[in-house]
Design a protein that fits this description.
heterodimer, A: alpha/beta, 2 domains, three-stranded antiparallel beta sheet, B: 293 residues
Chain lengths: 237, 293
């Protein structure tokens, strides 16, 4: 790896546009997400934040260009904004986390290796011993922490988080911040996160983009102190 | 196979097995149940998780149309697999393709196919009754042990093994895709491939099970075992075990009832599986009440 390669942004979007039913959901969004940084996207509801993540994941059609400059595993971790669980679904937390951690079908039992990995991941996100709990009975905050555990292993080169702390209590938010900083420090993970929690953004972000279907402003977290940004975002009391 | 049936019959005569096993067609029927239970029970728990119950119902209707088409084109009455598999395959591919490319909700689109195949099937069945005795056609629609042959049994075994191997290969991806297609895609799965893949395995499972369960009722065995299992299972392992156990008990029970009371096998199996659904529902309700107390 050369020093020059290190300074290349991991993720670049150029004039990305998404239209649905003739309406522009995103219009000419250009973004550079620095390698190993925590880049946060903020904006009002309907600003296109989740749409931008879906375009980056190549899950919806878009115009423009999105480039990934991988130098590592190219692994992507993702915590989606919504994850609806059927209330009668008999899938436990361990079953869910094992789905991408073993080749053996999870309905035939979990491997010893997967069990150990899952125990470690659940302890990391502050949910030790929750393996046998059905997904359907988890609280919103617990479910998001399970999704975070799923996204963190294998160690991602790019971590996409859509409202990862929704439903978290204060201690869970602090624990999340520590996980984020550990992933950055030890695995040089690049994080692109959508959040409405401005306190969290100020504490964790290296760079902030205010989005409202197009890029309104971009810079260090202190851009959020400006008056016009406050008007765009529903600030918490 | 004759020697095998003779040996089983001997065991039944000596009282080591139930007396019904003196008859080769009943032994064959029981073997069919032994193979169908893991196939349909296993497939059913993914059908329900992937919300494909209505899709399966439409496929059952397509099987009727396929049978009628095959018979009209000259296939033998006791093995109309060509028409059945061909038409079901076409219907499956068309349903999945249209579902993926249209903007209407999936249940609306499948409803259209359901109506189309039912209408076509009815017209063809009327034409069919001019060539065949209506009772011969009945056995295809409602299932009959008398028409199951050793070739059917071997076909069932071969397809069952194939479906099981394929499901083992892709089970985790299929389940993750059922829970969250975006997460499945991020982990390297291709949702379009998985959708076609599972729909084709479901088609194969339904087509080979049809002679014993019947075209009109086969969809019940790909939905109800998993629905019953959901009432009592807590994880994917117990979900699979319960789905297979319910399918097996319903199959064996239905077989017994159909031979004792001379009713169509398919109808008896479906009644048995429905009874098991309500029993598990009661068990769930009692267990919840105990937890509250």
């Amino acid at each position: 790896m050369t020093e020059g390669a290190d300074t290349t942004p991991l993720l670049e979007t150029h004039s990305v546009a998404v239209r649905r039913h003739g309406e522009a959901l995103l219009d000419g969004v250009t973004l550079h997400v620095g390698r190993g940084s925590v880049h946060v996207i903020v904006g009002p509801n309907g600003a296109g934040k989740t749409t931008l993540l879906a375009a980056i994941l190549n899950q919806i059609p878009f115009d423009g260009e999105i480039a990934m400059n991988w130098i590592g595993s190219g692994a992507v971790g993702y915590v989606p904004q919504t994850f609806a669980v059927d209330p009668t679904l008999p899938v436990t937390v361990a079953d869910f986390l094992a789905l991408t951690r073993q080749r053996r079908p999870v309905c035939l039992g979990l491997t010893r290796h997967a069990r150990a990995d899952i125990a470690r991941l659940l302890a990391l996100v502050g949910l030790p011993g929750l393996e046998q709990r059905p997904l359907a009975v988890l609280s919103g905050g617990e479910l998001r922490r399970v999704l975070l555990a799923h996204a963190l292993d294998p160690s991602p080169e790019l971590l996409l988080l859509d409202e990862p702390t929704a439903g978290f209590d204060e201690s869970a938010v602090r624990s999340f911040e520590s996980i984020l900083s550990s992933a950055k420090r030890h695995a040089n993970t690049t994080v692109l996160m959508v959040s409405h929690d401005l306190d969290l953004v100020r504490r964790t972000a290296d760079r902030v983009t205010v989005l409202n279907r197009r890029v309104v402003i971009e810079g260090a977290p202190d851009v959020l102190t400006t008056e016009h940004v406050r008007e765009l975002i529903p600030v918490r009391a | 196979m004759t020697a095998f049936y003779g040996w089983i019959g001997g065991l039944a005569e000596r009282g080591l097995l139930p007396g019904d096993f003196q008859y080769p067609f009943l032994v064959r029927g029981f073997l069919c149940v032994l193979i169908i239970a893991p196939i349909l029970g296993g497939v059913s728990h993914l059908v329900v998780t992937r919300r494909m119950a209505f899709f399966s119902a439409a496929l059952g209707q397509a099987a009727i149309t396929g049978v009628a088409l095959g018979l009209l084109l000259g296939e033998p009455l006791n093995a109309p697999y060509g028409g059945m598999f061909g038409f079901c395959l076409l219907s499956t591919l068309a349903m999945v393709y249209v579902k993926r490319h249209a903007t209407l909700p999936p249940d609306t689109l499948i409803g259209v196919f359901h109506a189309l195949t039912l209408g076509l099937g009815l017209c063809l069945l009327v034409a069919l009754t001019r060539q065949f005795n209506v009772h011969q056609v009945e056995s295809v629609l409602f299932g009959s042990l008398l028409t199951v042959t050793d070739t059917d049994l071997l076909l069932l075994l071969a397809v069952g093994l194939f479906v099981a191997i394929m499901l083992v290969r892709e089970y985790n991806a299929l389940l993750l895709d059922s829970l969250s297609p975006p997460l499945a895609r991020v982990s390297g799965a291709e949702p379009a491939y998985l959708e076609y893949f599972f729909a084709l395995l479901l088609t194969l499972s339904i087509v080979v099970s049809l002679k014993i369960i019947g075209a009109l009722l086969v969809e019940a065995l790909v939905v109800v075992p998993a629905a019953a299992a959901r009432n009592v299972a807590r994880g994917t392992r117990s979900y699979l075990i319960w789905s297979i156990a319910v399918a097996f008990l319903a199959g064996a029970g239905g077989l017994g009832v159909s031979t004792r009371f001379l009713v169509p096998t398919g109808g008896a199996v479906v009644l048995a599986v429905s009874a098991m659904f309500f029993l598990t529902l009661m068990a769930r309700s009692i267990s919840r009440r105990r937890r509250v107390l």
